[in-house]
Each structure stands twice: as C-alpha cells, then as structure tokens.
Amino acid sequence: MLFFDGGNLLIWGLLVDWVLLVGVYLSLGLDFLPVRLLPQALQLWWRSLQAPPASEAGEASPWQTSMAALGGLMGLGNITGMAVALTAGGPGALVWVWLAAVVGLATKFCETLLSAQWRQRLPSGHWLGGPMLALRQALPPPLRSLGTLYALAGVAMMLGPANALQSQQLAQILQQGLQIPPLATGLAIAALTYGVIVGGLPRIGRCSGWLLPLSCGIYAGACLLVILSHAAALPAVVAEILEQGLSPRAITAGTLAASLSTGIRFAVLDSEAGMGTTATLLACGQPAHPFQQACIAMVLTVIDVLIGTGTALVILLSGSHRLHSSPIAVVNQAFAWGLGDSHGLLLLLLVAVAFAFTTITAYAYFGERCLDALTGGKGQQPYRLIWIAVVVMGSVGPLDAIWRSSDLLDALITLPNLVGLVVLSNRIFADTRSLSSTQREA
Predict the structure, then answer these.
(1) How many angstroms separate the Cα of 24 from the Cα of each of 32, 347, 374, 436?
(2) How many Cβ atoms sit within 10 Å of the Cβ of residue 441?
(3) How far does Cα 82 stand from its chain's mean position?
(4) Spatial separation of the C-alpha atoms in residues 91 and 262, rounded to whole Å
C-alpha cells in the first residue's frame, strides 16, 4: 500500500498539471478548433451511421465501433467515480471536470487522429491502431520505446485493475441491492464477457449498441427528472459549485487545490483524454478517415461528460456526498432521495450492469490490441482466459487495493502518450488544418 500511495502522490502530483497544460497547449495550437468543430463532428458521426461506405477497411461498422468506444467510456466511473470526486474534492471539483473536459477535447482529438493515421493490418487480417503503434512509428528513434512502454502499461492496466475495478463495484452494487453473492456476480459476468469478446470488435459493438442507447437514455432521463423536480434548489447548488471551484475564498481556504486536483483526475480517468483507450478502439474500426474518427471521439466524450454531470447534480442536490464516504452509499442515497427507494435502486441496478459490462468488454479489446503491439498478434486466447479469471477474482477482491493500483497504472499509460502528443504536435496541427479544409470542401 505504501508503494501505491507514494507512486500515486509522486506521479499524479506532477501529472495533473501535465494533463491540463498539454490540453491547453493543444487547444491553443489548434485555435480551439476541436471545440468549434463540435457541431460538424456531430453531423459527421450521424452521416457515418446513416450511410457507412461498404468499401472502407476496418474491424467493424461505424455504429459498432462508436458504441464499443462509448462502452469504454461509460463505466461505473460515471456513477460511483463522480461520487468519489465530489466526496474528495467537494462540489468545486465539478468546475474542473468541465474545464478539463473542454481542453481535453483537443487531447482526445489529437490522440485519435494520430492513432487512426498510423494504424496497420496484422497478418491475421485484424486491424491494429492506437498510441502504442503511433508512438513507436511516428516519434524520433530515441523516443520510440515510449510506444512499448505504453503497450506494457496498457496490458497491465486492463488485465488487472481496470477490469477488476468494474467487476468489484458491480458485485458490491448487486450485493447491496439484491443480496447476490459477489462470487456469483463474478462468474456470471465472466461467462457473458467471454461470449462477447471472442467475437472481437463487431460483437462487442453489437452488444454495446443494444445496451448503451437504452441504459444511457433511461439514466439521463432519470437524472433530468430529479433535477427538474428540484429545480428551485439548483441555483444554490450551482453557486456552491462555482464558489468552491473558483472563488478567492476557496484559494485561501485551500479547497481550490483539492477541487482542481480531484476534478482533473476524474476528468482524465472518466473521459480518458490523454490515455488513448478510446482512440485505440476507434482506430481499429470504421470510418477509416482519421479526421472523422477524431471528431467522433469528441462527440463520445461530450456524451460521457453529460452523463457524469447528471450524476453529480443529483448527488449535490441530495447532499448525500456530505453523509457518506462510500461512493456506492452516496449514489444509492442520492437516487433513493430523488426517485424513491425502490425506483432509485432499480435504476442503479439496471444501469450499473449495462455500464460495467460494456466497459469490461471494451477494455478487453483495448488490452488485446496492446498485447498485439507487443507480440505481433499472438497470445490472444490465453489473454482472454486470464481476463475472465480476473473478472471473477476482482468481484471478491479488496476494492481499496484495486483503486490504488488503478490510479498508478492509469498514470503510466497517460505519461508516454502526453509526451508523444507534445513532440508530434506541430505535425498534428498541420495535418488537422489540412484534413479539416479537405473535409469542408467535401
């Protein structure tokens, strides 16, 4: 535990500043083009879904690819992770979640553009793309080992904490809500997961394409219902968010530092800007155009942030973040307050299963691609068997240890990717402007 605590303090103490600064740097270098492109990005995504070109190369259709990528974003972090952020950083953390998300759009855009540009086809016929490949091929020779470091950290992260964290939280939610033993949850999710991931990106995308639109719609609708039902209290909540996140009094009281650090960390871990996981999934599928995939990555990030914001406002309106330290207890009480005990519990159970399961399957695919970058496409079957074993072990493992190791490995994934984005930034800026002009003319 001391190792994880020390590593987290050292790396994230530096990396919080790095993530924000790199996002600001990329935003300025692109003249905030990603933010300005959002309406066009939404149109490009919609057009790709309406009429996907049959000739395009990729593992899966645009719908399957985007839903699989969204599944990687829509984990339990949108529910319990937001509770952790508000408990640790206070309401002001939400300000920095929003600000980090805005500048993080540029990071997300750039890493996806780069990943799609440098993707390649393996001898097996599968596509491989992502920061691990882009860093290894695009960086100057002395820095190309960063691609290998990224791939190693990605395998370790996805095979261990990222996978186990989702199954652990889901097992706890189902145990508290339905008295289902954690081991039973782990075994059931493991069996279902294996049945999906053996089908690759197309099957992962089809599964997410069924679960996510329904679960996100129900969850967003429930959050909106609670917020509108207590609209009279909303101005006071918004004032508290801004007061603790930005005011001079927050600076002198020391709460700003906690809000800033916690908010940025949550924004990175939730939207994965700077981590490259979404970029990897998108780079392996359709559409094949790097600019379009970069735009789609931003749209998915906005959806993710909106869902997390809904959770945050329900929690803050209920005040449950002041009463509990357990994130599950915070969320349970918030929705029980807003929807009633039975309806709140049913909502959380349905959404938790959908979010956790789609994230586990998306992470499995990302981990396989990191493994492919290291082995050239070998070892997938043993990896999958170990993966489902970790799902079972995670469901009954100690949550605190999983959280600590997850933070450390998240940082080890983010750092080489950020370095690569900065080193390659001039090339990315030029390519973005060229591709943007071509897209507008088309």
Answers:
(1) 9, 37, 32, 20
(2) 6
(3) 12
(4) 11
Q: What is the mean pLDDT of residues 342-366?
A: 89
- Please name each of the domains of the chain with its CATH number: 65-441 (1.20.1740.10)
H helices of 234-289, in order, are: 234-246, 248-253, 255-271, 277-283
* Alpha carbon distances (Å) from 114 to 39, 90, 382: 22, 36, 30
Q: Give the model's confidence band at 269: pLDDT under 50 very low, under 70 low, under 90 confident, else very high.
A: low
The 3 state secondary structure assigned to 32-92 is CHHHHCHHHHHHHHHHHHHCCCCCCCCCCCHHHHHHHHHHHHCCHHHCHHHHHHHHHHCCC
Contact 52, 61 (CB under 8 A): yes
Pairing state of beta strands 127-128 and 120-121?
antiparallel
C-alpha count within 13 angstroms, C-beta hemisphere, residue 248? 0
Cα 87 to Cα 80, 92, 330, distances in angstroms:
10, 11, 9
Listed in sequence order, the residues at least 6 apart from 422 whose beta carbon sits closer than 8 Å to its beta carbon are 22, 25
Q: Return the beta strands (E) in 140-194 as ranges.
A: none
Closest CA to 96 of 105, 87, 85, 106: 85
pTM exceeds 0.85, yes or no: yes
Q: Which residue type sits at 386?
A: I
How many other CB atoms sit within 10 Å of the CB of residue 96? 25
CB 216 within 8 A of CB 208: no
Q: CA 417 to CA 111: how far, in whole Å?
A: 8
* The pLDDT of residue 2 is above 80: no
